[in-house]
Amino acid sequence: MPSLGPDMESARVVEWLVKPGDAVRRGDVIVVVETDKGAIEIEVFEDAVVEALVAPLDTELAVGAVLARLRTKGESEHQASPDTPKAQALPVAPAPAFRPEPPSVSTARLDAGAPRGATDSGHQRASPAARKRAADLGLDLATLHGSGPGGAVLLADLAGLGGVSRGRRAGGFDAAAMRRVIGTAMARAKREIPHYYLGQQISMAAALDWLGRANENRSVEARLLPAALLLRAVGLALTKAPSLNGYYEDGAFRAGEGIHVGWAVALRGGGLVAPAIHDVDKLNIDALMSALRDVVARARRGGLRRSEMVDATVTVTSLGERGADTVQPIIHPPQVAMIGFGRIVERPWAVAGQVQVQPVIGVSLAADHRVSDGHLGSQFLSEIERLLNAPESL
């Protein structure tokens, strides 16, 4: 059981996506676990064959507990690695015969017609965990369209359907538990990290003009949002301020191995997660917009991967159109900086000695004084301003 954050102690196994004998490749999702932050997909770290599924479904396990035994290249059949238990695997519900890829959007819908995932006998294909969740919610699988191969219903497809079951939303989200985790983490961050704060107002006139031209011939689904420009500007500005991108651990700063921006997502039932969008400085605007839409959709239905929960080297929180004008973030340890964007509002703005009304956004920086100072932080915010005033360079 991997650690998914400094305050995680345990998680519950809710869905196996492989079975003994399956070949898996590095990066494949093999199991879904439920934490206080929702359902998280766990990837495998090397090419191997599944020897045994050790952890049964609906079992709470501590961080570090064995989930499965894998046979890597060079190991004989049933030969476990030296640090894994020799005991027989515990019984688990049979895994689905298919190898589902995580869907980009939830596609399960109530429908009076015959679902495309029905077998010849009329039964709807579904993973074991999805069957159990549907039963808990009182849903008829025969009325659902799934997003798995052949229309099979997956656990993630049930997010948001059927209301509340046993005090939790489908997908395992528990708002009260998440609030406790957030409160503990933020209290620790404020206590242990010497924060300093900087803020700046930036005109968005040039950025929004460019955005309007870029969206003229795009469909609604393909249109770019201001968030993509903000994300791209942060990624490029961080290339010139590497001491804001990384971690403070064991009394020293460790630079991030890439610019992986955690984007704070407000969940519909309350609570917050900040999954990472990887290599933001290397993605163009269209790729960033696509990645942002995907990660927000999966965060809200409970379909994030472990790497997205632990890889962020810096975090951005954007309050959007209906938010406050400014935000003062609290750093998420062990990161050393967090950037906040308020809503875009019209403000009087001096241009060439004249006052105009322009769209303006407030940007703020919370940073760790053990690693950087106000001079560097000011340069970072100025670089974001420069980039947003030259949107064609983004």
Helix content: 10-25%
Mean pLDDT: 80
Basic shape: globular
CATH fold descriptor of the largest domain: Chloramphenicol Acetyltransferase
Overview of the molecule:
The chain is 22% helix and 26% strand. With 394 residues, the chain is an alpha+beta fold. The chain has a 6-stranded mixed sheet with strand order 10-20-19-18-13-16. A hairpin with a 2-residue loop joins β19 and β20. The chain is globular and about 75 Å long.
Produce a short descriptive summary.
The chain is an alpha+beta fold.
Give the arrangement of secondary structure elements.
Elements: E1 10-16, E2 23-24, E3 29-35, E4 38-43, E5 48-53, E6 60-62, E7 68-71, H1 128-137, E8 164-165, E9 168-169, H2 175-192, E10 195-203, H3 205-214, H4 226-238, E11 246-249, E12 252-255, E13 261-263, E14 265-266, E15 272-273, E16 276-277, H5 285-301, E17 304-305, H6 306-310, E18 314-318, E19 337-351, E20 354-368, H7 374-388
List keywords for this structure.
alpha+beta, 394 residues, OB fold (Dihydrolipoamide Acetyltransferase, E2P), globular, Chloramphenicol Acetyltransferase, 6-stranded mixed β-sheet, 5-stranded mixed β-sheet, 20 strands, 7 helices
